[in-house]
Design brief:
Helix 2 runs parallel beside helix 17, helix 4 packs across helix 5 and helix 5 crosses helix 17. The chain has 514 residues and is α/β, with parallel strands linked by helices.
Length: 514
């Protein structure tokens, strides 16, 4: 550890020095602006502030940079020079009305206007860095306009179309890394910010971070907190969303395990207002641990769903995966099992190959192989039986499903399929396919959430608000950890991260120059 630090220190400028604190190294540095977090908001803030002439240090507690942005796929289009040239228009007014209606005007109109107006500056900048060569525009059936990558960017690889790296998120992070390198901005991975320090006037004057057992103290004039969401902090999640998490039932979190809301805690410790405007990204039912093609198949109408009592509860063909979370909430432990057999998997393979968008078909793979691979793990999320009796026995043993009731349910369901009339749920005949050809599988479905949005209350300049009114001078927040974030505009989470980081940098540099 000491040799590593001394070697690193000898390569740095003279604004860094090392002392001892007990048995540990205490590193001291100075800069203008500290950015806490290296996701989309943090890296854009760092890159833009550096281009404006600020001396910046980035702290990232993980060994790898990028945060949740690293895995983001696409971004919503709002307004840009290239977009208008390609006939996409200027959507700011439409989206302003959409956002304010969705939030019942709870969101500050100035913050929404600031996001919509600055969007063009940010995406024009990205295009100048090379983004234009990699992306195209598309209008979705729901009317939303998006920008997508033509294909996954090398050298990144992956088996799912819904998850990076190699798409928009990681591409922008890599662009910002190049900008930081150009301006000699150190991006310190493995440094966990632990404290924001204020001077006697209540203005930001420093940040403390931990690096293993050693410490880093930075003297600075401002800080941008971009620590991402707090989805992995069950205490904070329950505090913010008691209506969901104080109740019984399982929720799967598919965000990063490091998303623990450190920035919220640090800001609250210096008197910031927190957890007033927060939102929870809860798409619906999902198959987790995540195998994408099983998730795509398990929600289709020709499968049969049962709960832990071994009973059906819904017409599987009419309930969407989004609406399914309300159905799951009424079931024991909020869990559902999607049951298929070999013949149904063949039908699902054909259906998905026919109906999935072309970019998702590239990742479809073989359903039989995916179900077999998961079932071989012997875990609760996918159970197999060569016969229905074996499946029932394994479901009871592994997942706690009532085997006797399950077999009775299957027998009744197969009878409905034979006569092409579902006496219980009235599922349409075209979806009634009996379960008779082994092997048989049960894939677990449960409510899941991806990210939280909001936490640190900010104004339209991304300045952190104080409890009781006013702002904390020199302190800014951006991205999912800030109240500027939120899914009030569907599909804009990634754009909000980038734009709020850009605005925070703009305003922080103005503060530095005052």
């Amino acid at each position: 550890m000491y040799a590593e630090f001394i070697l690193w220190y000898n390569q740095r400028e003279n604004d860094t020095h090392l002392t001892m604190k007990g048995a540990f190294l205490l590193e001291h540095r100075t800069c203008d602006l500290v950015v806490i977090g290296s996701g989309g908001a943090g890296m854009v803030a760092a890159g833009h502030a550096a281009e404006l002439g600020a001396k910046v240090i980035v702290l990232e507690k993980n060994k790898l940079i990028g945060g949740n942005t690293w895995f983001a796929v696409g971004t919503r289009y709002i307004n840009s020079r290239r977009g208008r040239e390609n006939g996409m228009g200027d959507l700011r007014d439409v989206l302003f009305r959409e956002c304010m209606a969705k939030t019942n005007w709870r969101k500050d109109p100035r913050t929404v206007h600031r996001f919509l107006d600055e969007y063009e500056n940010v995406y024009n900048w990205f295009d100048e860095l090379g983004f234009a060569e990699l992306t195209g525009f598309k209008k979705l059936p729901n009317g939303m306009s998006v920008m997508e990558m033509f294909k996954r960017k090398a050298p990144h690889t992956g088996t799912e179309p819904s998850r990076g790296p190699g798409f928009v998120g990681s591409t922008i992070v890599e662009y910002m890394l190049d900008v930081c390198k150009k301006h000699d901005v150190p991006v310190l991975a493995g440094y966990r910010a632990t404290e924001i320090r204020l001077d006697v006037n209540g203005t930001v004057c420093g940040v403390t971070a931990a690096h293993g057992e050693d410490m880093l103290e930075i003297t600075c004039k401002g800080a941008v907190v971009a620590t991402g969401c707090f989805s992995a902090n069950r205490e904070l999640v329950t505090r913010a969303f008691p209506e969901h998490f104080e109740k019984k039932g399982y929720y799967a979190c598919i965000g990063l395990s490091s998303a623990t809301g450190d920035g919220i805690t640090m800001c609250e410790n210096v008197g910031a207002e927190v957890l007033d405007f927060v939102e929870l990204g809860m798409p619906g039912l999902g198959h987790h641990p995540w195998t994408w093609n099983i998730h795509a198949a398990a929600g289709r109408g020709i499968t049969m769903w049962v709960n832990k009592n071994g009973e059906r509860m819904v017409d599987e063909a009419t309930v969407s995966m989004d609406a399914g979370k309300a159905v799951a909430a009424r079931q024991p432990d909020a869990l559902i099992y999607s049951v298929t057999d070999s013949h149904i998997l063949d039908l699902l393979q054909e259906e998905l190959a026919r109906t999935l968008p072309p970019n998702e078909q590239l990742y479809l793979g073989d359903l039989h192989e995916s179900y077999e691979k998961e079932a071989a793990q012997g875990k609760v999320h996918c159970v197999k039986g060569d016969t229905l009796e074996e499946l029932a026995e394994n479901m009871e043993k592994v997942a706690g499903v009532n085997a006797k009731a399950f077999l009775e349910t299957v027998a009744r369901y197969n009878g409905f399929c034979d006569k092409q009339h579902d006496d219980e749920m009235l599922k349409e005949p075209e979806y009634l396919v009996p379960l008779r050809e082994g092997p048989f599988y049960a894939a677990q479905l449960q409510r899941f959430y991806e990210i939280t949005q909001g936490g640190i209350e900010v104004d339209h300049n991304m300045q952190v608000k104080k409890q009781g009114g006013g702002v904390i001078p020199g302190l800014y927040a951006a991205g999912d950890t800030s109240s500027a974030s939120g899914n009030s505009l569907n599909g804009t989470g990634l754009a909000l991260a980038f734009v709020s980081g850009y605005v925070a940098a703009d305003e922080a540099v103005k503060h530095l120059n005052r």
